[in-house]
Fold these 4 entries.
Entry 1:
Amino acid sequence: MVGPHKLISVQNTETGYGSIKVLNRLSLDVQEGEFLGILGHNGMGKSTLIRLIMGYLPAWSGSVHFRGKDITRLSIHERALLGLGYVPQGRQIFPDLTVEENLLMGLQCNIKSKCKTDVDKILDYFPRLSRLLDRNGGVLSGGEQQLLALARCLIGDPAVVLLDEPTEGIQPNILDEIVDTLLRFKKERSLSLVLVEQNLDFILDLSERVVTLESGRITGAMDPKRLQDPSVVQEYVGLC
Ligand SMILES: Nc1ncnc2c1ncn2[C@@H]1O[C@H](COP(=O)(O)OP(=O)(O)OP(=O)(O)O)[C@@H](O)[C@H]1O
């Protein structure tokens, strides 16, 4: 039974690539409004879990529910319309489109004036992008591209963002901006977050709960404040 307060519920799910199974009867619940961090060794299946929730990979068995609705067989597009947002590892912005055009790609919008209003609203959260609107996505720095990928996701006002390793190769000042922006979105728009990350400080800044993923299963949960304790870091550092 899936309770009404659960935003995402993954139950006993298996998936992988070809004949290789990566997730092994994995179960995970994300609560409405929660910021959840997922820690795990390289190659343990963190990105695979995010791709499964978003619909890029089919569930071989088990189920995925969103707000109590069974979405296991829904397409990526149908999941996005329900409120699932995804920022993939590597960002995948359109290099030959301008920043503004990239932002518009995040909207299901045919009314020009509404699109403009939505772009203006999102730029209030991403002031750094305001100065770059006419520039092509491909010439932005890595950090600016990460901000753009996040803004393109948030412009559609998703209920949850599935965020895959946003800190890779990004300067600390932009990481701080990403943290502040996500926390502001949480406060003002009731955003939820599922964050896959190896940067412990970033997980600590954003997550209310951290789970560990090993051998295709969720193996533990902890209060992220415990990551401030050096002995716990020592225990978990091997997971990063
Ligand atoms: N497209 C693919 N085809 C075949 N195997 C894949 C594919 N993508 C990932 N894998 C394999 O699936 C396993 C899980 O990969 P996944 O990317 O989910 O791990 P991860 O925990 O996100 O790791 P990392 O932190 O290195 O990104 C790995 O063994 C990986 O080699």
Note: Residues 8 and 66 are 5 Å apart (CA to CA).
Entry 2:
Amino acid sequence: FKKNKLSHLPGLRSMLAPMAPWSSLLPTTFWNPGLSWQWNWRNQVYSKFGLQTISTLGFLDGRPSIFTISLDVASEFLSLKGRYHKGEETTSVLRLWGGNLFTENGSEWSRHRRIMNPAFSPETYALVWDEGAKLYQEMMEGERWDDENDVLISAINPITSKFALIIIGRCGFGEPLSWRTTAPESGMSLSEALAIVSATSIARMVIPWWIYKLPIKRLRDIETAYTSLDAHMKVLIASRQEEVSNGKEIERKDVCRLMMRANEGQGTLSMTDEELVGNTYLMLVAGHDTTARTLDAAVGLLALYEDIQEEVHDELQAVISTSGKIDFKDIPRLVKVQACFLEASRLFPAASAVTRTITETIVLKTDEEDGHGGQIILEPGTMFFIDLVGLHYNPKYFPDPEEFRPSRWYGTAESDMTTFSLGPRICIGRRFALTEAVVFLTSLLRDWRLQIVLDPGETKEQWRGRVLKATTGLTLGVGKVPVRLTRR
Ligand code: HEM
């Protein structure tokens, strides 16, 4: 059955295919691998078949898919052009407001990328650094931690989420968001609306729209979140357009102004109104949720591994003692801080899989371990997944994969940071995310010692099981991270 489509590879056979829209809404069980199987069953599935590339098939939805945890297969595949499209799982949830850089293929994709590329420049990263350092101070004052020596935070998650949203707002859209911004009287704040939309966008694809009109509070909140987010994005765009038409346009090439110019037909590349809103949504979601969720994991891990935290603090001290303060040009010397973020991202990759739909037959060489005559054939219509969770826990590339060992990333080239994918469609925001993460963690670790907050009678091992357990949705992250800050 469908053996050819599956390149005769053994693997998971279930009622619903993993990661298909309906199965994503249901819990992971043997009949429905759903969204969490990559985490819950990690390498068990691959080791059961002794393979690094396996197939999956849903009997009810009949969807043939192939998953790989092989870096060689992934690199070869992602360097190919034009023989596959972005996978529908991710594109349909990110296309809610219109086609954008993430969802498009071929020449449409390259048009979007050429419009936005200039915004991802050293000037922008320097701005991210400066705004990040300023925002950290605003956060200390806003949360009233600046006069305290000991702070108990029940969950770091909303803090990192707010931090990352304000940074993308200020540095990507020139929007003067502040730490003290309160929710509008009617509707929801941008962060609240974005959080609900991100959490429910998969459900929104399969559950009919009229359900959300029923007089049930949770459903009405979802409806309000969508209308509020729509209104926020329109205000964001309109205020930039007003600045441009009042001649107040700042010369800075932030992503919003570049899109605006393209939308007004200035320059050789253009963008429709729908694409402008589609890309605004994409930047708000991709530009904050991924970084925030990885920062949650990094804070949790550093709080758990206090010896590694001390090593990072020593590195910071050395940088501070020579230059007096830490500034943007010091980033190359902050190897250990960056490595902690990358290691958190290896253990908890916010983008858990890179998905593609095959449009033309592809023959890929496979690793010896795959034992399939050295090749797999991907037929048109097959879904192909680079399983970043499986790859990141593959001992062939990451020995003792369950261990938090940031030193794996000392001196790694940006192109080898698998968490941001590989090849031409590598994450455009990778340096943006790294700069933001380094400034956040550096500021926090410079001033505070982080410790985990245990429940009464709980051990660190139990805490690990409770907190550092992935939650899956549009992105993957950890549970609520309770942390104690003690002033250094
Ligand atoms: C820890 C943080 C981040 C992680 C782990 C991450 C991961 C990824 C991955 C794996 C992809 C490739 C997806 C695919 O090809 O299917 C991607 C693409 C993308 N990311 Fe990120 N990302 C992060 C931060 C950011 C930030 C901060 C921004 C924007 C400011 C951003 C914007 C994008 C965009 C627009 C794309 C689509 C690029 C294209 O297709 O040309 N990401 N990201």
Note: The chain has 18 helices and eleven strands.
Entry 3:
Amino acid sequence: MIKFDRVVKQFGDLTVLNQLSFDVDPGERVTLIGPSGSGKTTILRLLMTLEHVTPQRDPKSDGGVIYVEGKPFSHMPKGDKLVPAKERYLRQVRKKVGMVFQQFNLFPNMKVLRNVTEGPVHALGLSRDEAAEKAKSLLELVGLSDKLDNYPSQLSGGQQQRVAIARALAMSPDILLLDEVTSALDPELVADVLAVLRDIANSTSITMLLVTHEMSFARDVSNRVMMFDRGVIVEEGGPDQMFSDPQEARTQDFLKAVLAD
Ligand SMILES: Nc1ncnc2c1ncn2[C@@H]1O[C@H](COP(=O)(O)OP(=O)(O)OP(=O)(O)O)[C@@H](O)[C@H]1O
């Protein structure tokens, strides 16, 4: 479903991902943990094509290939303009991936329903009626059927994040990326958002990659936990083993620090 094959990503002199290889199978839920700056968000951003691997001649610079459903993408020779066919191809692959960010990134001038219907109308070619029907059922799933005509500014942070989740799902992605989706929320709003995500995890077979500091949530929903440090996987395993019996000192120290927070 997802494959990183010896991916190297640099920002200037900083090597953020260092010959990183891993696979994610269809339907897997994988949690990425690790200290700040270890490259977790960069992995998600590469999958969303918000960042690119841009190989150059220098063997130390960017390299490797990322595959989604067997198709290579995010491999862009530096300086090349995207030709239309390649852009179309990338758009096709990108449609398979949905992302929810820490900041909700809703369109502030559109009502809730419109926030969720815009993508399906413009990117999937659904009619306004079809998109509205789909959006309403997703907004019901996230518990916001009574907010269709509200603007984002009229909602709490937790409600806005639930709209963002419905908006990502409205594109029918095969893969859902969640990047610290509760970090910007007041503590009392976190539980509702996590409950919605638990429901989605339990009721769909969508593949998920999560970056989260909510360890009990990660333990509940993930099949696998990968611990990153400096752009490499230090340790990986099932959630019970990783959270109860981590083997590597860096994982032990990281979890101690997070749990003491
Ligand atoms: N666009 C960019 N330009 C320059 N440096 C960047 C860019 N994006 C990320 N970085 C740097 O790359 C490193 C890895 O960042 P990344 O956001 O992937 O880490 P992270 O593990 O998600 O951290 P956090 O837990 O704090 O979100 C950091 O040192 C960051 O400053």
Note: The chain has a mean pLDDT of 90.
Entry 4:
Amino acid sequence: MRNHTASFSSSSSSSWYSNKLLFRQLFEKESSTYTYLLADVDHPDKPALLIDPVDRTVDRDLTLVKELGLKLIYAMNTHVHADHITGTGLVKTRVPGVKSIISKASKSKADVLIEAGDKIHFGDLFLEVRATPGHTLGCVTYVTGDAPDQPQPRMAFTGDALLIRGCGRTDFQGGSSQQLYQSVHSQIFTLPKETLLYPAHDYKGFTVSTVGEEMLYNPRLTKDEEEFKSIMANLNLPYPKMIDIAVPANMVCGLQDPSAKPDEALSK
Ligand SMILES: N[C@@H](CCC(=O)N[C@@H](CSS)C(=O)NCC(=O)O)C(=O)O
Ligand SMILES: [Fe+2]
């Protein structure tokens, strides 16, 4: 059991969602990346976190955090991105006390290395970590807490494991179409059907989907595993333009001090 500052307050499920969870979906247009800002605005400190910030839009994101009166505590990644440089290192240099988070399986450096089952607390809210490898070895999905006082419907931040009507490619960074198929079916499609899905990218103009919608209409993941593997083997996508710069940089949070020591700030 890893310790953290978790406490719970009770409030009515019909009214607390908008009163308590602040949620913003932000877009970086060059890499078509979504960054998510979440905060517990019912808590006196208004603790907040950023999921998948991009270096180019860190100033925009931090201005918003300041304007909303939030206290940023975490800057976290769903995986080692290949198409852009993460903003987590830059956020740390701009806001003292912020901790970077990535999965242990990614073999990257960050202040906090998370694993499946970990809970990331911000105020009275938390995100649960689910391992969803396949796009990369260390991909995780962050899901809002499974408890009566947590947001309903639940929200899943899928990174590149599941994209709306698509999924992450599996042809580099330890990718595996078999693993991705298993990850999505066992870790995402088992969530309640009304769970809101928020991916790390969208190339078609979508912003949000649901588990039920993707189980019906995802053109790749509704197929059986063999057909899925064949689809993925024949995508023939060009490599991301920034891959050779982005991957090594993102192994150290973009620019984080490599001497930073991981700490244990989570609970299981
Ligand atoms: N053209 C972009 C890269 C596009 C790309 O490869 N996207 C990745 C997610 S970023 S690692 C992907 O998995 N796409 C799946 C798909 O079906 O499009 C660039 O050059 O940066
Ligand atoms: Fe990716």
Note: DSSP finds seven helices and 14 strands in the chain.
